[in-house]
Specification:
- By secondary structure, the chain is mainly alpha-helical.
- The chain is built from 17 helices and no strands.
- It is globular, with a radius of gyration of 25 Å.
- The N and C termini lie far apart (about 60 Å).
- It is a multi-pass membrane protein.
- InterPro entries: SWEET, SWEET_rpt.
- Its main location: membrane.
- It is found in: Cell membrane; Golgi apparatus membrane.
Length: about 375
């Protein structure tokens, strides 16, 4: 047997063994003639997670992933039936199942009807699987807190210590989620650069988004250094470097370099003015950090407001054809993660712009429910046919 085959069987046996632990909960429910303190949500979320991984296994044609998660779906379905049979609050369980089903249906519709490319579909499904699995693996931490908080004999120092550990873990998870999502968002510029390199000209690509993103990342890097926030520094340093690469690529093939250099000089002058004001006029590190944070917030909110023009076009044409769903969805998720991170570290300057980003993202996503993705002329042709 090859090493890959051995690992495949080992993963299969250990994972199915893990799923079989639910039999103990079912036995407890049957013996007590009711669920008691056994929660329903772990069964439902495990079933949902197995469904995602099973679909991923089908797309990747991975027999191990398919087999393990098919078994997981079957077992969790049995556990849920057992739970509901003895539950006295069936309406709550059915409500959760309906909500989970709606989420699954929305995801299935988006992956199969909106995304046509199989490779892209697999990538987005894998991202959904990863996020769901990480969230599920972190969930037992909250149970530990609950147990310790309710344990009268538990030393207060231990409760404080565990809560501190959990708080650090939550910040760490949010930090890396925010880092991965934001750097992934910055890397989307590589697609634009590839198009420029292939065509040997900039075409209709705009230079200003690269420049404004560079300015925003530079401000946030300075703010992160003043605050001593490693997450903000890490993300925005990568953002600065990537924008410099994208701008260099753009300028190399641009036929109107004079205009681009003029815009760069404006931003450089603005940056110099901000630097002189912060370092020479504003007194004290606390006040300096506070004012720079406000400036970062304003710049980010203005940049996040750019989709408003697209939203106005959608309302005018009654079509979401010009609004990319993937972009709106990822920006919403990214803003939500940063909002949670800002709340965790008590940073209002992170909370405000990303709260705005979540609100705008939800409005954009709502438009996909209100307006179709085909232009009115095409719909008229389809109706006549």
């Amino acid at each position: 047997m090859s090493l890959l085959g051995f690992l495949s069987w080992l993963a299969t046996l250990t994972t199915i063994g893990f799923y079989l632990t639910g039999l103990l909960d079912c036995k407890k429910i049957i013996d007590n003639d009711g669920p008691g303190a056994v929660p329903f949500l772990p069964f439902l979320t495990s079933h949902f997670c197995c469904g995602l991984w099973f679909a991923y296994g089908v797309l990747k044609a991975d027999a191990t992933v398919k087999f393990v998660n098919a078994a997981g779906m079957g077992l969790t379905a049995i556990y849920m039936v057992c739970y509901i049979s003895f539950s006295k609050r069936k309406s709550v369980q059915f409500t959760l199942i309906i909500l989970c089903g709606m989420l699954a249906f929305g995801l299935e519709y988006y992956l199969n009807r909106v995304i046509r490319d199989k490779h892209t579909r697999t990538e987005y499904l894998s991202l959904a699987c990863i996020i769901t699995t990480i969230v599920m693996q972190a969930s037992p931490l909250f149970t530990v807190v609950s147990i310790l908080a309710n344990a009268r004999k538990c030393p207060a120092s231990l409760v404080v210590l565990v809560n501190l550990f959990l708080f650090i873990m939550i910040i760490w998870i949010l930090s890396w989620l925010a880092t991965i999502l934001t750097i992934g968002f910055f890397l989307s510029g590589t697609v634009t650069c590839k198009a420029i390199l292939d065509k040997k000209n900039t075409g209709t690509v705009q230079f200003l988004p690269f420049l404004t993103t560079l300015m925003s990342c530079s401000l946030w890097t300075a703010y992160g250094l003043m605050k001593g926030d490693g997450t903000i520094i890490r993300v925005n340093v990568v953002g600065v470097l990537l924008q410099v690469v994208y701008m260099s690529c753009f300028l190399y093939y641009s036929v109107n370099k004079k205009t681009e250099f003029k815009h760069m000089s404006y931003v450089a002058v603005a940056g110099l003015v901000v630097y002189i004001y912060m370092m020479k006029i504003v007194d004290g590190d606390i006040e300096r950090t506070s004012q720079l944070g406000r400036l970062c917030t304003i710049v980010t909110i203005v940049m996040m407001g750019s989709p408003l023009a697209t939203m106005a076009e959608v309302i005018r044409t009654k079509s979401t054809e010009t609004m990319p769903f993937v972009f709106a969805f990822l920006v919403t998720i990214q803003s939500l993660v940063w909002l949670c991170y800002g709340i965790a570290v008590h940073d209002l300057n992170v909370q405000l712009p990303n709260g705005t980003g979540v609100l705008l993202g939800l409005i954009q996503l709502a438009m996909f429910c209100i307006y179709p993705s085909t232009p009115p002329t095409q719909r008229h042709v389809v109706d006549l046919a």
